[in-house]
Amino acid sequence: MSPFPYRLVATDLDGTLLRSDESVSDRTRDALAAATAAGAAHIVVTGRAVPWTRHILDDLGYEGIAVCGQGAQVYHAGEHRLLTSLTLDRQLAGLALSKIEAEVGPLALAASRDGLEGEVLMGPGYRVHEGPLPYVPYEDPSELWSAPLTKLYIQHPTLTDDELTRDARATVGGLVDIVMAGPGIVEILPLGLSKATGLSLAARRLGVKAAETIAFGDMPNDIPMFGWAARGVAMGNAHAELRAVADEVTASNEEDGIAVVLERLLAG
Q1: Can you tell me the distance from the alpha carbon of 149 to that of 112, in angstroms, rounded to the nearest whole number?
Q2: Could you please report the per-residue DSSP string of 61-102?
Q3: Reduced to 3 states, what is the DSSP secondary structure of residue 233?
Q4: Which residue of 26, 103, 146, 216 sits 20 to 30 Å from the alpha carbon of 203, by its own alpha carbon?
């Protein structure tokens, strides 16, 4: 057997490590365990904030560092504490939001509050994905701005996710960052924040370099992570924008795409 060629395996969660039922297959668990036994660290890098990630990490028996909230939060799963946390400037976010709505019309909004127990607020008309993730509905817009936020979620009644992302970037690209993180999930983030910034911070803590990292993802918000890592692997179900910049396209998340690549690398 050849030595495993990477010291860090970075995986997105939704559409990548997780199957559609939010489970991780035994095959993928075994492949990650084998990579870890071969000397690599596994790090989760997700757009989900910590409160929406913690139960998955606990189920995996994951006790290391995770990057959450599109890079805003570096979280120590074993110690259940935030190591770093970056918040969205609410005044700047409000300005960006008003500019976007002036361009495309009213938006449905949600927001992720900062902290280990930060609530996700859902406003009127926001389409919620079915599942176990908790959220708090609100009616009064002032509630949205009453506590520190890591990000805003925006939805448009008629524009597609790609169209909304494109129009929002064209309108406020110099004020905030706009990313598409999944179906129906377009986010407003602090300018310059990405999965790459969070991953680089976490990797430094682990003593690992970009040149020693392989990353797996499925959506455009994974593009900066692919740019940072030595190798970027898009899932078979990945968005076309990510596939276009990937070094490799593997099988889908439902077909153990991560395991397919790791098993090949472990076999040399």
Answers
A1: 6
A2: T--SEEEEGGGTEEEETTTTEEEEE--B-HHHHHHHHHHHHH
A3: strand
A4: 26
Q: How many angstroms from the chain centroid is the CA of residue 232?
A: 15
- Residue 253, exposed/middle/buried by CB under 10 A (0-12, 13-18, 19+)? buried
The residue type found at 30 is D
Altogether, the residues listed in the chain come to a count of: 268
